UniProtKB/TrEMBL annotation:
Its main location: membrane. This is Core-2/I-branching beta-1,6-N-acetylglucosaminyltransferase family protein. It comes from Escallonia rubra. PANTHER family: CORE-2/I-BRANCHING BETA-1,6-N-ACETYLGLUCOSAMINYLTRANSFERASE FAMILY PROTEIN-RELATED, OS01G0695200 PROTEIN. The keyword Membrane applies. It comes from the Eukaryota.
């Protein structure tokens, strides 16, 4: 996993945060945990599933998958509408995890780009709980089913784009890296030693959950069956 400053286009500095700030604070580090496993995974890739074979064989226009983790609706949908309007529909896809049963249609959103883009298998999410990672994994899992998706951008319902589509698309596609926030917080005491069989203390990091992953890393997070179960058990 390469550590790097997030791109200007998607860094948290450049996003307005109208809500969820508290949640971000509570949930910091949650997502990064799934990534801690990357290094060992990459050294010894698991058996290739059919999804991976299809992705490897894919030729065509690569897409950026925009993955929205929303509480209910997307209040800033009008800004995203303007953003996606200028994009080539072959270059992106949209997935939304929202409250179970919530439907995106003309009565709940001003942007047709979001119609029926919500996951059918969404779960009830609690602030700062592992269900948050569960929801992110569902989003990644759904997006991985489309072999055209090559970059996976996790967004909250209060994120807005500050650059146009082509700028962000070209920036992400030009980079072979994932963008994650990860740092060692010496003051924090959230590490539970009971998790040490799966997550070693010296691998414990803090970071924002709003990340952008390349496909290989999205697979690691979605397919992980070691880190997430440990987190679920000890970080409720
Ligand atoms: C997108 O933004 C970039 C950088 O701000 C600018 O150079 C470019 O002309 C814009 N493209 C379109 C299609 O508006
Ligand atoms: C769509 O993707 C193609 C390459 O796959 C690129 O040439 C084109 O500029 C992209 N369109 C936009 C609006 O970014």
């Amino acid at each position: 996993m390469t550590k790097r400053t997030p791109p200007q286009t998607l860094s948290k500095r450049h996003f307005f945060r109208l809500g969820w700030k508290l949640m971000v604070l509570v949930a910091v580090g949650l997502c990064v945990i799934g990534l801690l496993k990357l290094q060992s995974e990459l050294a010894a890739p698991p058996a290739r599933g059919s999804r991976r074979i299809r992705a490897d064989a894919f030729v065509g226009s690569p897409k950026v998958a925009f993955l929205f983790l929303a509480r209910r609706d997307l209040p800033l949908d009008f800004l995203w509408q303007a953003f996606f309007e200028n994009a080539d529909v072959a270059n992106f896809s949209i997935y939304i995890h929202s409250e179970p049963g919530f439907v995106f249609d003309e009565s709940t959103t001003r942007s047709a780009f979001f119609y029926n883009r919500q996951l059918r298998n969404s779960i009830k999410v609690g602030w700062g709980e592992s269900s948050m990672i569960g929801a992110e994994r569902l989003l990644l899992d759904a997006a991985l089913d489309d072999p055209a998706n090559r970059r996976f951008v996790l967004l909250s319902d209060s994120c807005v784009p500050l650059y146009n589509f082509s700028y962000i698309y070209n920036y992400l596609m030009a980079s072979p890296r994932s963008f994650v926030d990860s740092f060692l917080d010496k003051k924090e005491g959230r590490y539970n030693p009971k998790m040490s069989y799966a997550i070693r203390k010296k691998k414990w990091r803090k970071g924002s959950q709003w990340i952008t992953l390349i496909r290989r890393h999205a697979e690691v997070v979605a397919d992980d069956d070691v880190i997430f179960p440990a987190f679920k058990k000890f970080c409720q």
